Amino acid sequence: MCLHTDKDGTPDKVTDTLVTSSFSETGSSQSVMYTSTNSDVVQAAKAPCSEIPLHFSAHYKDYAYLPSWRKAPENKLISLVDQKDYLEVVYERSSSEGSSPSHQVCHYSYDWLRDICRCDECFNTVTHNKQTAISLHPQRPKSIGISEDGDFVEISWDGGHDSRYPKSVLLAEYLLAKDPRENDPVIDAQRQLWGSDLPESSFRKYEFDSLITDDHSLFDWLMDLRKTGLTVVKNAPRKLGQVTELCNRVAYPRIICWGPTFQVGVKENASHVAYSNLPLSMHTDSAFYMFPPGVQVLHCIKQASSGGQTHVADGFRAAEKIRQADPECFDLLTKTEWEYFDMGDDYIGPHHLQARHPVIRLDSRGRLRQIVYNDLNRGWRQDNATSTSPAAYKALRKYSEYLNAEDSMLKYTLKEGDIIVIDNFRVLHGRSKVDSASARLMEGAFMDWDEICSKLRSLGKALFS
Ligand SMILES: [Fe+2]
Ligand SMILES: [Zn+2]
């Protein structure tokens, strides 16, 4: 191992500007863009689905499963500096012709470096599991250095363990950590918000047959679903079973209390309001599950002679508008949990499902993660005094107003053979009254985001690496 801990010989440091990201709604298109001080990051995020530069860091076999949006630049390792709890790594940026090279200084905690060691002792590359307990990790290096070929950082730890890290992985992970939006190209895919002015022509349509037979189409469709939360699949055969076939192409349908699929027609004495001819107010489905299904798939097999128009609205857009207009109301919507329940006797026998959710669930960075809103299934038990307060109800009504506003709700008449696929963590749906003499028949199914994201990663690896 080549030791190099030269503190004095560190070249001129050009520490990167911290990349900041934030939501901002733009002009009439009402699509959301992230702003960033790092222009190539924005370019990568704007790339069309089929051109996503998915890169699986294959420089080092043990890291090969780690995805990233782009290749790490071919920067040269210059020096390492031991900075107490952190290792400082200095790279020389690859320079374009005529410009002088600059240096990039990155910091990695020793805890993290020890944690991600992918040697045979620490990591099983067959099962992709870590094999050492974190309690056994020493946190300080005995020595640090750069390999002779210049491609690896090498660390000998207290206690006698040796680790080596490809520079490409270190640099890629550093860049990704600075811009968490890119951390996972699937989970962190750029969300594009939309309102009622979304022209039907800008809906990307997908042919049922090509989704069943072509992996590129399948990838584009699922990535589009992740970004917009709303897609339409055209020309599915007009018979039962097609939603199952579509779900099976991804993984499988998520079974709920009504079974793996459900049929929505007009029934007399309907056991659920969805099976009646009544209009349905805007809602997310299955709010009474602690973990509601992630995506709804609804196939129009027979359209109503009149009525039964599908209504959809982008719940993330409504939430962002409230966040800007009334932060206190937004805060209440994220903190007040509402109870939802459903009782019946169906596929799993008698059921009594019950769960609590805030209308808006955020992730640890304050980004929107999930909307749960359903007037049809709201229960009566209080979470605490807040959930019955006038302010909480006012916030609930405000969210409803934003959803049902002219510029928010999109009305769409499904044609026979259409399958509408919506993100149930984001897009709310409803319908107008259905003609009661109608033979309208819809078949629906659910999927979960875990399986969809898994499929996107597997397809991305197969198609683009
Ligand atoms: Fe529904
Ligand atoms: Zn190891």
From TrEMBL:
Residue ranges of every copy of the TauD/TfdA-like domain listed in the record: 207-445
UniProt domain Gamma-butyrobetaine hydroxylase-like N-terminal: residue ranges: 104-168
Lineage: Eukaryota, Metazoa, Echinodermata, Eleutherozoa, Echinozoa
Assigned protein family: Belongs to the gamma-BBH/TMLD family.
Signal peptide (residue range): none
Keywords carried by this UniProt record: Carnitine biosynthesis, Dioxygenase, Iron, Metal-binding, Oxidoreductase
Name under which the protein is recorded: Gamma-butyrobetaine dioxygenase
Entries under Pfam families matching the protein: GBBH-like_N (PF06155), TauD (PF02668)
PANTHER family documented for this protein: GAMMA-BUTYROBETAINE DIOXYGENASE, GAMMA-BUTYROBETAINE HYDROXYLASE-RELATED
Transmembrane parts of this sequence: none
GO BP term (any one): carnitine biosynthetic process
Necessary cofactors: L-ascorbate; Fe(2+)
Top-level division of the source organism's lineage: Eukaryota
